[in-house]
Structure formats: C-alpha cells, structure tokens
Amino acid sequence: MKLAGTVIFYKPDISIIDNIATYIDEIDLLFVIDNTEKADNKFASKLKKFGNKIEYHSFGENLGIAKALNTAAKLAVEKGFSHLLTMDQDSRFDKKNISVLKRTAIKNINKKFAVIAPVFTLKNESSDSRINHSDILDEVKSVITSGCILNLEAFNSAGGFCDKLFIDQVDHEFCLRARKKGYKTYILRDCFLNHNLGESVNVKFLFFKTRVTNHNYIRRYYMTRNGLYLAAHYWNEIPETIRKMTADIFKMIIFEKDRIKKLRSVVLGIFDFIRCRYGKYDY
After folding, report:
1. CA–CA dist 251, 213 (Å, integer)
2. pLDDT for res 134
3. All domains of the chain, ordered by start, with CATH?
4. pLDDT interval class at 129 (50, 70, 90)
C-alpha cells in the first residue's frame, strides 16, 4: 500500500501544525488543500517544518470540502498512490492509533473496501486506555471523512465526492454510492481519532441526556438540504434519515442559541432541495 494523506484547511490556526504532527510520519506525502478565501502565507510557511512531505495548494476561495477532497485524491492518483488518509484540520491521532489503522488497512489490502475509519472521540473526551488493537473491522453503511483511509480504486470507480453538496453529508453520500459499486465501508472499533463536532455539549432534558452540536446557521442550511438529498437518493439504505434530522432540529430549537436564524436556514435548505438548487450557500 502506497499511502498519501490530505488535510483540508479553512481559516486554520496554529494548533493545526500539532495535529498534522500526529500522523505525518505514517504517510509518504501530505496534500494540504486550503479553502480559505485569502490564504495566510505566513501560516503556509510554517508547514516547511515538515520538509518535502508537504504539498500545499490554495484555491484562493472556498470551493467546499467535496472539491478539496476530489483535488487531493486526483493528485494522489497522479503520483501513483493507492490510498489516501483524509483528515479534518481539527482532528488528531495518537501514534498508536494511526499505526494500527494503517496496519489494518495493509492487512486487508485485498478486501474491496471504500474506506476504513476509526471511532472518533470528541474534544476533551478520552478513548478507553484498555483497548487491545485487535484489528477487527465492523461493516457500516457510512462514516465521516476525517481519519479515514480511502481506497483510491473505489474513489475512481464511484466517481469521487459529490461537488454540488459542497459540505455536509459529502462523506456519507460517497460511502453509500461506493457501496452500490460493491465497495464496503468499515470501522475499526479499537482505533480512535480525536475530532471536533461543531461546538458539541451534553445537555439534560427532564430525565434524558443528549448532545447538541451548536452548528452555526449556515451549516444548518447544508445539513438540511444535503440530508434531504441523501434521504431521497438512498432511502432504502438509510430510511432513518428523516427521523434523525427531525429529532436534531427539535434539539436545536430547545437547546441552542440563534434559533430563529437557524430555523430560517432550515427552511431555506428545504426550499433549495425542492427546487434542486445546490452548491455554496448564497443568501
């Protein structure tokens, strides 16, 4: 297995350098794709500490996560890589976990997989220190992109990530489309990635505890529009989508701030789904 990596930037801060350091040693080359409208040259120069293991590309505008992932995957294919580690800028591994993820992907190189993913733990949560790294894979329908090892053969066969979705559900849509091509998605249950999910907090309502993500109103638009797209195109695979979306919106109304603005975005997302308007948020 020849493994490259990619991390997608959007207005990054200095902590991202430390995040990259947690996985750079396990890959041969890292494609940094910068979606920031005005790239910070001083920040980009800090990547030089990783030497020739970094290849930096700036769009000069925000073209979305799908476009960035497609760009990195195509660059990796052109350079002869067979697999791609896909990372969010605010995600990090520890060395034991990234090593076991890579080892498991190599061990299962002949399996027809689209992605192999770790379990993600949220900020300030710790994984179980008693894990035994048993290399056991569980098949699932879809996973989030961050921390995954993407099979570039599956990427080419499925046709890449869906550009028009821009952000949100891009990863799940790809897994479901690759599934139709015969490529499976797996989670490595004894492997953990530290990942930020919005500004997640635990809340309590009567006798129930739940988690709210506190995504901003623009993300609420994408979550609604693209969630409906997934429900419409993959109903047989994920019939629970509408129920989960509805429950999430109710939690937003009860627990989150800026409810009116976020509800407006939900309505706009529904409206744009109905009229098949995709791409970047434009309100």
Report:
1. 9
2. 60
3. 3-195 (3.90.550.60), 201-274 (no CATH)
4. very low
> Regarding predicted confidence, which is higher, 42 or 137?
137
Rounded to whole angstroms, the Cα distance separating 29 from 150 reads 15
Length of the chain, in residues: 283
C-alpha to C-alpha distance for 194 and 87, rounded to whole angstroms: 11
- pTM of the entire predicted model: 0.92
**CA pair distance 134, 190, nearest whole angstrom:** 7
Residue 133 confidence class, pLDDT cut points 50, 70, 90? low
Closest residue by Cα to residue 23 from 125, 124, 118: 118
Confidence of residue 212 (pLDDT cuts 50, 70, 90): confident
Percent of the chain with pLDDT over 90: 77
Both tokens assigned to 127: 């994984």
Confidence of residue 17 (pLDDT cuts 50, 70, 90): very high
> What is the C-alpha separation between 123 and 170, in angstroms, rounded?
22
Nearest-angstrom CA–CA distance, 19 and 254: 34
Question: What is the rounded distance in angstroms from the CA atom of residue 264 to the CA atom of residue 270?
Answer: 10
Of 127, 87, 102, nearest to 3 by C-alpha is 102
User: Alpha-carbon torsion 124, 128, 131, 135, what sign?
Assistant: negative
Instruction: Please name the residue ranges forming H helices in the chain.
Output: 15-21, 41-46, 65-78, 95-107, 152-158, 170-180, 217-233, 241-255, 259-274
- Amino acid 65 reads I
- Report the C-alpha gap between 262 and 218 in whole angstroms: 8
